[in-house]
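dumping this here before i forget
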Amino acid sequence: ESTCNEWAPCYREGYCDANAMFCMWDLCDATKSYNSTSCWKPEGCLGQTVNFDSSSDVVPVKQFSGNPNTNAFVSVFEPDNTKIEDGKLVLDMTYDSAQKKGFGATVHASHTIQYGTVTARIKTAAIAKGVVSAFIIRSDQVGDEIDFEWVGKEPNTVETNFFYHDILNYSNSKYFDIGGDSSADYHDYTIVWDPDFISWAVDGKTLRTLKREDTYNKSAKEYRFPAAEGRVGLSIWDGGNSGAEGTEEWAGTPTPWTDSTVYQMFVDSITIKCSGSDLANSESDTVEPASSDSQQTSDA
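structure:
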C-alpha cells in the first residue's frame, strides 16, 4: 500500500512529492506511488542540438515543468553543481568534508530516447587520478546502459562500455587511446544506438561496433543487449574516494583534494537524432583498442 497521497502522489527513495524530482519517468517508483497514473509518462525522443547558450537549457530538476521543449536537460543533484558559462555546460565537483570525498554533478535529458544517434562535444575533467567523467544513455528502471567514461589517471584513454539489466561483465568494456589529453581539448563523442548494433566514435572515427547477435547468452537464452528506453546523461564523480575497492583501482586513488579544489567537465554541445544511424552507413576509420589492466565497476 502506498504511503503517498493525491497532493504528493509520486514516490522516490522513501519520500513522496509532486515535483519533477519525484514524478519524472525513470525517477518515480510507480509500484509505490499513489496510483497507476501518478508517475509521469516517458516523454519520447526529441531531436535537437543544444548549444548551451541559454540558462534555460539546464535547470534544477525541481524547477522542471515536465515540458522538454522548455528545458533540454535537468540537473538531478542537490546542491546543483552545474552552470552555463561562455556557451558551455560546466559540471563541477567540489570537496564534501563531511563525506570525505567529492560531490559532483549529473544532468539528464528531459526527454527519453530509444535508438538514435547522440553526439556530445566534451572536454573531460581527467586532470587528476580518481576523477571520473561520463557520457551515457541509461535506463534506471531496468539497468540498461551505453557509455563513454574517462578517468583522470589515463587522460588519453576513453572507455566504451555497455550494461544489460545492470549485469556486471568486465568483458563488455573496451579502452581506446584518443591520441591526446581528453581534458585539454574538445572532442566529438558519438553513440549510435540501433536495434541491431551499437557503435562508439570519436571525432567521426568509429572505435567499436557491437552487434546484438553477438550478445546472446546461451544459459539465460537471451540477448544481453541494451534495448530499454532511457535518457542521455552527463556526469562528473569521485571514483578515487568512493570507498569501493574495485572502483578506486579503476579510477585511481586517492583523488587529490583541498578545500578549494574544483574539478570541471565542459560540454560545448549535444546533438540528438532520434532513431538515426548516420555514422553506421558512413565510411570511417576504425581505431584498435588500447590495452588496459583496469576494470570498471558501475558506479556512475
